[in-house]
Structure formats: structure tokens, C-alpha cells
Amino acid sequence: MHGHPHQVPWEAAVSWAEIFEHQKRRQPLVEEWLGWLELGPGDHLADLGTGPGLTSLMAANRVQPHGRVYAVDHWPEALDFLRRQAAAAGVDNIDLIQADLGHDDLSGVVPAGRVRKAMLTHVLHHVPAPQSVLQRVHAWLGPGARMVVAEFDPGGPGRVGPPPEERIREAELAQWLSDAGFHIVRRKTYPEQEQYALLVERR
Ligand SMILES: C[S@@+](CC[C@H](N)C(=O)[O-])C[C@H]1O[C@@H](n2cnc3c(N)ncnc32)[C@H](O)[C@@H]1O
């Protein structure tokens, strides 16, 4: 993959281990979202922008014995962190894929035909052109595939997550998803965690 990550201040300021700790605090939400996807044995899930990979580790357990998780991130260090976590936990059904969601063609590296479920959580506020990422993901996923998209709410006080000015409004994200060809199946807000999640289906 030729994607060249550019560093943003948030990523420069914290370590992958710290981000992993943040992810652990969101674990109940991730369980709920994997439930929305009805993720179970034999499924193939793409975790787009996995970071240090807690979602991928949780999903890898659910899809055993024959399912797989494709953990995608543009940062090799994040994938190295996840590789170590997976090895320590004896998890061997995660494929680590270094790719830039804004530039790389996922179809060459992740078998979209088999991937019917995806997570895109807390990623879009990092990318310079989120709408083009959604268009690329739409082009790659097959019709009927489902995906959970979660982001932080700019209306929150900023106690957790990125600064409010870097966040994406739910109405705006919903419009982008619809424009890209996704149908919104359900939505939920989490005021305590200053975030919201949307379950979408690729049309
Ligand atoms: C805040 S972390 C979220 C991690 C995880 N999805 C979660 O919900 O906890 C954002 C991740 O998205 C990744 N990311 C940002 N832009 C990306 C891009 N263009 N391509 C691939 N990964 C990207 C970052 O490297 C980082 O690991």
C-alpha cells in the first residue's frame, strides 16, 4: 500500500497504549454495535481505522471459529500494537492491513465479497475528505452490507474525545452517508460519552 499517513496533533500527543485504554472505556458501546451487526461465528468483519485494535480483538472472538477480521489502518505502529495484543491473547484470525482509506483501493487487499459487516468508528473526523472515504467504502462494499459509523458530538462539552471544533455533526454525517449511497437503519446517541452511532446499509 502506498498510502502515506500525515500526522495530526491528536495522534502525536498520545501513545497507542493510551488510545487502547481509551478504547477499553468504550467497550460496552462496541459490544452494542457488534450486536447491531449481529456479528457471530463465521462472519467476516472489516474494522476500518482500527487504531490499537480493541474492536478487532472483540470481533475476532465473536467470529470464531471460521470468521476473520480485517483490521485496516494507515499507521504501521497501530497495527504493530494490535499484532502484539493479538499474539499475547492467542488470537489468530485478524488480518492486519496497512492502507489509507482516503487513497488506497481496498478491493485488492480485503475480499469485499465476503465482508458483509464493517465498523468505521471515530475515524472520519481524522480524515481530510470524509465524503470521499465514504464513497470509496461504498464502492468497495457489496449491496446489503452493513456498517456502524460512530463519531463524537460537537455539542458535547469536550470532556472525552477530540476538541468539539474537530467533531462532525450527526445531521451532516447522515447527509454524507445518504449521498454516498447508504441507508440509515438505526441511530443512537450517547450523551455521557459525547458521541452518536449510526447503523447503515449499503444500497
Ligand atoms: C481515534 S482512532 C479510532 C480507533 C477505533 N476505530 C475506535 O473506534 O476506537 C482513529 C484511527 O483511524 C486511523 N485513520 C485515520 N485516518 C485514516 C485513513 N485515512 N486511513 C486509515 N486509517 C486512518 C488512525 O490512524 C487511528 O488509528
Automatic annotation (TrEMBL):
Q: Which InterPro entries match?
A: Methyltranfer_dom (IPR025714), SAM-dependent_MTases_sf (IPR029063)
Keyword Secreted (UniProt): no
Task: Domain (Methyltransferase): give its ranges.
Answer: 42-159
Task: Keyword check for Transferase, yes or no.
Answer: yes
CDD domains per UniProt: AdoMet_MTases
Recorded GO MF terms: methyltransferase activity
- UniProt cross-references to Pfam families, sorted A to Z: Methyltransf_31 (PF13847)
Q: What are the alphabetically sorted keywords of the record?
A: Methyltransferase, Transferase
One of the protein's GO biological processes: methylation
- Which top-level group of life is the source organism from? Bacteria
- Protein name in UniProt: Methyltransferase type 11
| Species, as recorded | Thermaerobacter marianensis (strain ATCC 700841 / DSM 12885 / JCM 10246 / 7p75a)
